[in-house]
Amino acid sequence: MIETPAGLPVILSVVGARPNFMKIAPIQRALAADPRLHGCLVHTGQHYDEAMSDSFFADLGIAPPDVNLAVGSASHAVQTADIMRRFEPVLDEVKPACVLVVGDVNSTLAAALVAAKKDVPVVHVEAGLRSYDRSMPEEINRVLTDQIADLLFTTERRALDNLTREGIGADKVHFVGNVMIDTLKANLARAVPARETIAALDGTGRLAGDGRGFAVLTLHRPSNVDDPEDLRALMATLIEVAGRLPIVFPAHPRTRGRIAEAGLEPELARSGVLMTSPVPYPAMLGLLAEANAVLTDSGGIQEETTALGVPCFTLRTSTERPITVEEGTNTMVGTDRGRILAGVDDLLATGGKAGRVPELWDGQAAGRIVRVLADSFAGSRTPAA
Ligand code: UD1
User: Is 174 a catalytic residue?
Assistant: First the structure.
């Protein structure tokens, strides 16, 4: 039984995977501060362990979810279907004014689909980003979620062009800035100093006190880690990079599994790449903020490095976040050895790419979102027709 205060419209937010948690934290806080609305939170359980989920709720001060659907890991079809089946009765019980989803993970699309078919308005935060690469599962999730959304909040102006091309009316779209950067700004003062994190992680002392600075690496895209040959080639290049600039590598569980399957662990252990478990948000923020460079295939980290002014090399050939390249510190290098090493050599010679922080990435995005939600839904208790 989910308790909701009588008379107040309920904004039912849904999260599932790690990058969702940074995005929902400021929205839940802003909802809690607005007397016209009531926020409820559903966790699908797509990510479920301490390192990928629980630590983020604790560190970001997100109240425990009202419901956890506990779907866990599975194929895309099974995971999406399980979320849909388990979310439907929650929606029936709560009867929210809208369902709010963030980002582009399977939980985002699954919850949006259930709501749209039940005539419950769908709100999509971080709408309109497009890589134009349909081999990415996230791209499918983005396109479909935006098609069925009633209110779309964007992080960069260009997103509206993408949505317009897909026939989505500009009247539904609000450019509000970036909630992930709200969380970054709110937590920067609490970031764990990088030297503390490295000292704690680096049992062998390979990196501690090296004095050369360091890079941070993250890697989890299926296109980079699922094929053992491609993964071997990429890791060989990254080990070369680490010969020039030591690398701290908090590895996603799927990546760690693929590295073990490819037999790469002994080689990594001898190299300048320090592979560790995923780290909590305040430790990651400290690592990112103090790194000389970041190498990543994550979407969110492209944005975080731009906000922090830290050079980022994105190990992909496309990005759904072009503003991080055009205005920020991001350079697309793909997985080509020559381009990666040339980028790192340039960084070591010049300090790397400088940039500016994009418009409205000012820490206030969640407040803007909740003002629009109040204008749209305050006064309604039942779903709009
Ligand atoms: C998902 C998202 C991706 C996001 C990423 C962030 C989709 C399509 N993908 O990918 O967009 O960037 O999360 O991390 O939604 N695992 C654990 N513990 C957990 C969760 C997962 O060990 O708490 C392991 C399991 O072995 C699982 C694997 O990680 O099979 C992959 O997890 P999954 O959620 O299926 O996809 P991600 O690669 O994490």
Answer: no
